[in-house]
Amino acid sequence: MTHPDAIRLFAKTLRNLEQWMDKAAAHARAKSFEVDVLAQARLAPDQFSFIRQVQSACDQAKYAAAYLGGKTAPSHPDTEQTFEELRQRIRKCLEFVESVPEADFAGAEERKVSPPWLQGKWLRGDDYLAQVAIPNFFFHATTAYAILRHNGVDLGKMDFIGSVPIRDA
Amino acid sequence: MTHPDAIRLFAKTLRNLEQWMDKAAAHARAKSFEVDVLAQARLAPDQFSFIRQVQSACDQAKYAAAYLGGKTAPSHPDTEQTFEELRQRIRKCLEFVESVPEADFAGAEERKVSPPWLQGKWLRGDDYLAQVAIPNFFFHATTAYAILRHNGVDLGKMDFIGSVPIRDA
Known about the structure:
The structure is a homodimer. By secondary structure, chain A is mostly helical. The first copy, chain A, has helices spanning 3-31, 50-69, 83-97, 125-150, 157-161; strands spanning 112-113, 123-124.
């Protein structure tokens, strides 16, 4: 998988996530509760809420695009409280992620990636993508999905995966 | 990310999963319940149980190695009922996945992948990896993790990610 392929996969999954939120909104209407109740939902008391799962998925996509594309990541403060604000966060994220030209990922495999949490140490770009960005992104996206699923939202695996480029003979 | 990198990532995550199961066993002992109760746990009544999440994660890894490495996948019937049997399933899966020589993934990007569920249609190898194998694998691995987390097992994100190859200056 090329680096632009990975970024496209993150973007596609964030767009899928917006559709899970549409289904959550429909569920809330059908059950006559405020959808933003689900923004605070979590699967264990010491786990991130739905809001932080979405923020974290966005950040994994944003930082992968920035670090591997040689850009400075824009600041997206974690201030969201509502589904509507989370939708805006996703769109801001997509706007940045999709602004990085494909050509700028050339050589990303060997780029030194040194996020602040590594305190001066670093990862090769290919290791960052495979062992940090991909598993973390899908960890948070799947947990966001699981929180909605656990709360009765009508979701199935195809909502998670979205469309795939199937070819005829 | 190269195809062998993806296979290594799946294998590493399956080994991490065995460690989540160790923590589940410790939790069960501390609370004096049979760990195999968790084998049937799920986050929603119409969702796969922990057992099927683990079986599905294994299958995603197995089929990715088979389809992209040009091998026939061995049959691993979904007969597991206990944690001990799931550990054996993981080991069988790892044994196969790690038996495919790296060189056999050469050209996998353009290989036609035509699993039975595509009914004669196909996906390019790169699309299969990026849009089927990776999201499905992490979907099932994360849901397995979330089921344990929701049931009080002492897990954190580092258990999910495992070790990463951090380098010094």
